[in-house]
Amino acid sequence: MQGKAEDIFWFSLFHEAAHILLHSKKRLYISCNKGDNPEELEADQFAADYLIPATYDQRIMLCNSDQEVCALAKELGLSPGIVAGRYHHLSKKWSRYRHLINKVDWD
Predict the structure, then answer these.
(1) Is the dihedral of CA 36, 60, 82, 95 positive or negative?
(2) 3-state secondary structure 81-100
(3) Residue 81 burial (CB count, 10 A)
(4) CA–CA distance from 72 to each of 2, 20, 86 (Å)?
């Protein structure tokens, strides 16, 4: 799994769960480059929507402070790091709210 951030961990977990739930049980999924593979895109969408429904994307983009990110995370019942990760994905502003994302420690 790439990275040690909680948003990446949870997204990856639900992405892989989508393959189990939605796709052939007889295929092996190993992908370094998703490209235009419809099953990979479907798994990405499943993971994103499972974590935060797309109807919240506009509200996430309008967040202007840590407090707003945290309030929205509380409303959704999520860690602020998950909301911050979606903000990064949507805005491509990778440094904003990065400090709200917890690291996953495997040691």
Answers:
(1) positive
(2) HHHHHHHHHHHCCCCCCHHH
(3) 24
(4) 26, 30, 12
pLDDT at 1: 44
Give the burial class of 102: count Cβ atoms within 10 A of its Cβ; 0-12 exposed, 13-18 middle, 19 or more buried.
middle
Examine the pLDDT at 27 and tell me if it is beyond 70.
Answer: no
Q: How many secondary structure helices (H) and strands (E) does the chain include?
A: 5, 0
Euclidean distance between CA atoms 10 and 25, whole angstroms? 22
35: left (phi over 0), alpha (psi -120 to 50) or beta: left
Cβ atoms of residues 84 and 51 within 8 Å: no
pTM of the model: 0.85
